[in-house]
Amino acid sequence: MAHTFYDGTIPVLQSLMLTLKHILTKASTNPGPNASATITESTFLTTRLIEDMHPLADQIRLATQFAENLAARLTNRDPTKFDGAPTTLAQSYERIEAVLKALGEAEKDVVNGQADVLKPTQVGPTAVVEMSGAGYAHRIVLPNVYFHVMTAYGILRKEGVQVGKRDYYEGFFPQ
């Protein structure tokens, strides 16, 4: 069977969400000997890779919101708007699970039918342009989700959590 628009979007986002869940779980359950002994859950979520970047909680917020926005767009529904950044790991996991559920409910034929559909698309805080579902997926959403998941990974590494390349790829391996 030929590779479809669905194949290049929904399973990819599912894999990224599973990776995000995996690295957060590893950080909270088995951070390793190099992890900061003084970090608490609340400070953990406020940790940044560097001062001018968003903290971990916002990396989770952005990755999940972008994924939810695309799932909604490709299934012809309004996106769930999450309230702010998660303040606990439990909220982070709930948000990831909500997105995974939405992605899991996406029907292939519906998603494939949205690839070339032009719609007004928010591409910044104030910018809206006509964009196809495929353009939105591949030029806006997927690069952003990859970026925010990788930045979350970098924050965890910076804090001494023992995550490696295998952990980043965790969500992409067959379950």
Count of separate structural domains:
1
- In the CATH scheme, the class would be Mainly Alpha
Question: Which class of secondary structure composition applies to the elements?
Answer: mainly alpha
Proportion of residues in β-strands: 5-15%
Backbone shape? globular
Q: How many beta-strand segments?
A: 2
Largest sheet: 2 strands, antiparallel
Poorly predicted segments: none
Mean pLDDT: 93
CATH homologous superfamily annotation:
dinb family like domain
Helix content: 55-70%
CATH T-level fold name: Four Helix Bundle (Hemerythrin (Met), subunit A)
Report the total helices.
Answer: 7
State the order of secondary-structure elements, H for helix, E for strand: HHHHHEEHH
Radius of gyration, in angstroms, nearest whole number: 16 Å
CATH architecture, by name, is Up-down Bundle
Physical arrangement of strands within the biggest beta sheet: 1-2
What separation lies between the terminal Cα atoms? 21 Å
Pfam family, one: DUF1993
Protein name: DUF1993 domain-containing protein
InterPro entries: DinB/YfiT-like, DUF1993
What do you see in this structure?
This is DUF1993 domain-containing protein. It comes from Penicillium daleae. InterPro entries: DinB/YfiT-like, DUF1993. The chain has 175 residues and is mainly α. It has a single domain (10-172), classed as dinb family like domain (Four Helix Bundle (Hemerythrin (Met), subunit A)). The protein is 56% helix and 6% strand. It has 7 helices and 2 strands; from the N terminus they run αααααββαα. The protein has helices at residues 10-29, 41-46, 56-74, 89-105, 108-113, 133-158, 165-168; strands at 118-122, 128-132. It has a two-stranded antiparallel sheet with strand order 1-2. A hairpin with a 5-residue loop joins β1 (118-122) and β2. α1 runs antiparallel to α3 (56-74). It is globular and about 50 Å long.
